[in-house]
Amino acid sequence: VVGAPDIHFEKILPQLLTLKAPWLQGCFIRPCFFEPTFHKYAGGLCSGLQIHTDHWGYQHERFKPYRIVALILKAIRNNYPDYALWRKFDYEYETNRLAIDLLTGGTFFRTWVDDPAGKVDDFDARLVGDEESWESRRKCFLLY
User: What is the mean pLDDT of residues 113-131?
Assistant: First the structure.
C-alpha cells in the first residue's frame, strides 16, 4: 500500500495505465483508502494504491516492483508538479545527497521521475543492461 492524505490516487491510477508500462502486468493495482496507525500520517485518512501479488494472475517474472514505484512517483509528479516527493534532510550517515539517491544508487531514478519528457522506455533501457549483467554473474550460483 502506498498513499498520502493530500494526493488523490483515484487520479493517479488512470495515469499509470496511460503510461502503458508493461511492468504493471505482473500484479493487480487498485485504489484504496486507509488510516495509518503510526508515523507522520497516523490517524488520518489517506488515499492510496494497493498493489496485489497474491492472486490467480500473479506473474513473478513480470512483476517489477522497482519500476512500479518509479511509475507511481512519475504519475504523482505529472499530476502534482510541485509536490515534495524528495525529502531533504540528513539521511543515515549522508549529509550531502538526497535519501532517494542513496536508496536508488544514484540520481537517475529521481531525474527520470522529475523529467516531464522521461518515457517508460527510457527508464527500462537504463535498467536492462544492469539486470542482464546481474543475471549472468549470478547464474553459476543457482542450484536449480
Answer: 93
